[in-house]
Amino acid sequence: MLKKSLYFLTLLLVFGCGSSKKRTYSKKKPITVSVEGSTEEAAPPKKSKKEERKNSKANDIVSTALTFSGTRYKFGGLTKKGMDCSGLVFVSLKENDISFPRVSYQMAEQGKRIKLTQVQKGDLLFFKTSKRGKRINHVGLVVDVKGVDIKFIHSTTSRGVIVSSLREGYWNHAFVKAMRFL
């Protein structure tokens, strides 16, 4: 039993997101992201029922992920007490009845690769944040797209679960690919 526990912990250390350093946080910052479009200038083109279901599912997943805003980073964590980046995506999908791998590099093998110009709410963004590693080790869930500004929710070792923009230099540089799974 001890051997299995050590093996599992070793796997988490090798394949998890970011660092395992414990961080403290002075205060939580509120995060606001529009889940539905609020403008009513022109009638949007009719969408198929399949497209509407897909958009509804993406909204549900994003809404679930946003409930974890401000949660501190915890390597291997899956609760509001602490979670890592892949844990955030895993839980958000699981709570919406979607089965998905637990670690980011395995998540990156699911779905269809898309161009950044095609990214929509609910798509996944994958990153390599380690200078030494050659494998994807970070994932974010797209929560909003306005032109070239793509906002995504993820868990960082320094600030916990936050919404960031792909336009930020660090994330833009570390970006590897976008995937659609819905």
Key terms for this structure?
22% strand; 182 residues; two-stranded antiparallel ribbon; alpha+beta; 5 helices; six-stranded antiparallel sheet
Topology:
Elements: H1 2-15, H2 49-66, E1 78-79, E2 82-83, H3 85-94, H4 104-107, E3 112-114, E4 124-127, E5 138-146, E6 149-156, E7 160-165, H5 169-174, E8 175-180
Antiparallel strand pairs: 1-2, 3-8, 4-5, 4-8, 5-6, 6-7
Structural class: alpha+beta
- Overall shape: it is globular
Average pLDDT for all residues: 83
Number of helices: 5
- From the N-terminal CA to the C-terminal CA, the straight-line distance is 38 Å
The low-pLDDT segments are 11-15, 19-29
Helix content: 25-40%
Strand content: 15-25%
Question: What's the number of extended β-strand segments?
Answer: 8
Strand and helix order = HHEEHHEEEEEHE
Strand order of the largest sheet: 3-8-4-5-6-7
Radius of gyration: 17 Å
User: What profile does the largest beta sheet have?
Assistant: 6 strands, antiparallel
Brief account:
By secondary structure, the chain is an alpha+beta fold. The protein is built from five helices and eight strands; from the N terminus they run H-H-E-E-H-H-E-E-E-E-E-H-E.
Describe the protein.
The protein is an alpha+beta fold. It is built from five helices and eight strands, in the order H-H-E-E-H-H-E-E-E-E-E-H-E. The chain has helices at 2-15, 49-66, 85-94, 104-107, 169-174; strands spanning 78-79, 82-83, 112-114, 124-127, 138-146, 149-156, 160-165, 175-180. Helix 2 (49-66) crosses helix 3 (85-94). The longest helix is centred in the N-terminal third of the chain and has 18 residues, at 49-66. The N and C termini lie far apart (38 Å). Residues 11-15 and 19-29 have low confidence and may be disordered.
